[in-house]
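Why do we care about 3D structure at all? Because function follows from shape, and shape follows, mostly, from sequence. That is the central idea of this module. The next example makes it concrete: a single protein chain, its amino acid sequence, and then its structure expressed as tokens.
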Amino acid sequence: MKIVCVILIVIAVIILLYLLAIKPRMSKKKDRSKFLGVYYAHRGLHDNSTDAPENSINAFRKAMKSGYGIELDVQLTKDGIPVVFHDFTLERMCGKEGKVYEYTYEELKQFTLAESQERIPKLIEVLSLVNGKVPLIIELKVEWMDISVCPVVDEMLRKYQGDYCIESFNPMALSWYRRYHNDVFRGQLADAFVRTGEYKGGLYWMLQNLLLNWMTKPDFVAYNHKNENVLSRRLCRKLYGNPAAAWTIKSQEELEEAKKHFDIMIFDSFVPKMQKKK
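And the structure:
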């Protein structure tokens, strides 16, 4: 009988520690309403075979014209300028060797995006274009331990008058914001990394199961909508009332299904039917 009691206590403690580990921000919650009721064009309303490739000024202009919010990616150049570009490497979008941080902005702006004449934009150019007309989801691209993008982008965004939130796969970026600018609405990006076989190891298992939420205290969790049934993701939304963002939805059918499990929709490769902002 004593052994059974000990086992039950151990199980209860493990469950409690697990629930504490995945617990998002619960006190001093930020206003989420400004980010709901609008669909977000992933890297802008883009098509890489046109003059509006991903993360380009034209793609952002098209998204705004259609009334969509915008999801975009930010990283630093060699000379510390925040630019809007997704991949760490330049090969896929520019046909060039090397990584973004290995080039100055003056060097990067010589390259064109995909099949267009569009150039890699500065973040400040995108902010000037949007100017608060639609909400922004800004993904901070943080490779390993280098979080130098955080203070640079934060200084720029403090002057921006529109609605924006930040997100990142790297929990160090969220931890930086928690410490230095806790008022910013922040989201933890994640996926079923280990389950899908894309990545291996304990760190990715922890990220998959949101076990570092205790450290980052996200205001929302952005998860691959195809893996919505991950227990930690569901508990964050249902048990803790944490908003859930779905990435990246690629059809109207996927969108309708995602509405059952998520609150914020990030889409790509199709034009969704609009919904009224709540």
